[in-house]
Amino acid sequence: MSKLSNTSDEILTSARNLLISGGYNGFSYADISDVVGIRKASIHHHFPSKVDLVRVLVQQYREAGIAGVAALERNVSNPLDILKAYAGHWSQCIEDASKPFCVCALLAGELPSLPPEVATEVTAFFRFISSWLTSVMERGAMEKTITLSSAPDIEADAFLATVYGAMLSARAYGNPTLFSTIVAPTLSRLSPIVAH
Amino acid sequence: MSKLSNTSDEILTSARNLLISGGYNGFSYADISDVVGIRKASIHHHFPSKVDLVRVLVQQYREAGIAGVAALERNVSNPLDILKAYAGHWSQCIEDASKPFCVCALLAGELPSLPPEVATEVTAFFRFISSWLTSVMERGAMEKTITLSSAPDIEADAFLATVYGAMLSARAYGNPTLFSTIVAPTLSRLSPIVAH
DNA sequence: AGAAGCCTACCTTCTAGTAGGCAGACAGTC
DNA sequence: GACTGTCTGCCTACTAGAAGGTAGGCTTCT
């Protein structure tokens, strides 16, 4: 199926977990070595350099994001429900502490000091999410299932900012439920105005 | 006036700049040494350990924040204008690239891997900003100069999330003006509803 | 035979941090 | 005014350990 070995995946997974907790400079090959139970040098066999590792990691992260979004679009037709599902995804990740932060949100913070190869991947991820959210907003506005108060692309970026900002706040306060609390009003603001 | 020497201040300033661009693990005493024009060992004379340095840095950052907020409250009476001024402050910092990121927003991302002494200071900063924004929201609601759609503390955290998320997006796209673009709709949503 | 996967052993550079010395500023004292 | 002690700020020189990375050898699978 996949052309990457099992170990390769384990390395990527542990690297992602370490990355999520402390950023690019917050982990080393030795840390991965401890988790995976493999020697440092063996990691270099799979990923010659740290830049390679993280670049592949973010690349895969973006591809997984694209696949996830495609699946979401297939299963949910209502644009507002898509936004709710997207927010719900993160809400769940944060609350069960499985993936309590977006890899690219964290790396975006460190962007100015990131190796250019990695930085490029990170901005590509942002462009993808942003353009996808824009398309959702546009469709919602057309179908009148989403209430926009600004242009679709601005609403998309604002929504993303709120989601990522909420992630940050949840982490800062050590309060996972805060994420939903912050995002909920934004979702209800985007909901269609009910007749009264 | 201040009991910290000039050099001490220079170290803190350059440390802050380095911190803003790459986070806690993204800079070293050698980097500071290069900027300030002092030997590494001399930095240890002022700040025995890196934890000391960053703890003091965040402490001072919070104190400066408290002072800044106090000044803002003194000069601007309208709660909505206070929010606008707060957003405007960051907008300016980002656009002239002087302080294009909040120290604590960046550190909050790295929180799980931060030394506990630093982590404590970071969460204290968030608590301060959040409770201040809550008080602004409350006053605005009372005076009917701010339109709230949720409880004041939730609106405060949501506003902060948007501001910090907008910071991140501006950095991710390398587009400083994006900050204002994202924050502006939030501000107008909080504006009093005009009679029609 | 050869490639894949992992190993030990090693290298260089960077990391935070220490030890100890030296020059100047500022006392107090004779 | 010279004589002392001490404190501050900075220096050179050094340490131990961690960083990312390399060389080369040993199995195992194809």
Provide the descriptors you would attach to this structure in a database record.
196 residues, mainly alpha, Tetracycline Repressor, domain 2, elongated
What does this entry look like structurally?
2 copies of one chain form a homodimer. Chain A has 196 residues and is mostly helical. Chain A has a single domain, classed as Tetracycline Repressor, domain 2, CATH 1.10.357. Chain A contains 9 helices and no strands. Chain A has helices at residues 6-22, 29-36, 40-46, 50-75, 79-95, 103-109, 116-143, 152-173, 178-190. In chain A, helix 5 (79-95) packs antiparallel against helix 9, helix 6 packs across helix 7 (116-143) and helix 8 (152-173) runs antiparallel to helix 9 (178-190). The radius of gyration of chain A is 18 Å and the shape is elongated. Chain A starts with 5 loop residues before the first helix and ends in a 6-residue tail after the last helix. At the A-B interface, helix 6, helix 7, helix 8 and helix 9 of A face helix 6, helix 7, helix 8 and helix 9 of B. Chain A binds a DNA duplex (30 and 30 nucleotides) through residues 5, 7, 28-30, 38-42, 44-46, 48-50.
